[in-house]
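Support case: user asked for a sample of complex input and structure output to validate their parser. Sending the pair below.
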Amino acid sequence: MRLVLVGPPGAGKGTQAQFLAVHFSIPHIATGDIFRSNLKAGTPLGLQAKAFMDSGELVPDSVTNEMVKDRLNQSDVAAGFLLDGFPRNVLQAEVLRANLAQKQTPLTAVLELSIKNSEIIARLSSRRTCRECGLPSAGDGKCLHCGGALYQREDDKAEVVARRLKVYEEQTAPIISFYRSEGLLIIVSAIGSVEEITQRAILALDPGSH
Ligand code: ADP
Ligand code: ZN
């Protein structure tokens, strides 16, 4: 199973990706996580990405495409993969298609988590992220997954959220038509409990599975 997960910031992509990757036994490849871990480790890639990430802009395509290409050449990808946060614009989608075509491993499906703007803003402003495991949790307590301490991502602050949404609408939303015309698009509502949405997605991807 070779999947792309798309949806606006706050749709719950990261959380769903985690569960879907376990369900289908495929690696979860989140470009935002790769950038953040490079940032934390102070690598040249992290330094290149920092200013873009802090302001809610996309990291330049040359940097991002190269990073994803390397990741997709690692051996665990033989089992398939779930891409989360990539592609984020039509050029990235085209580069991915060419790269996968060359390896004769085209995408199986593209899952869109769909949600209204008003809902997104409410969710992101209360979102906190775990310092230990990197997963999102709502509210001010401890991480729901591992009990670690939570913090607010620099780019979850109100001004940056507004910019990320604008970037999504202008640059990322067009990939939805791109994948629709390729016959790959599956739309799942991102409203409901985490478990409900996971079940919906699994059913949509693999109708014979239950
Ligand atoms: P979100 O919650 O907005 O989906 P991510 O963790 O996926 O956040 O990404 C955080 C930031 O990392 C983005 O705002 C962007 O700066 C950078 N980034 C992640 N993926 C990409 C990509 N495919 N292309 C360019 N920049 C990216
Ligand atoms: Zn945690």
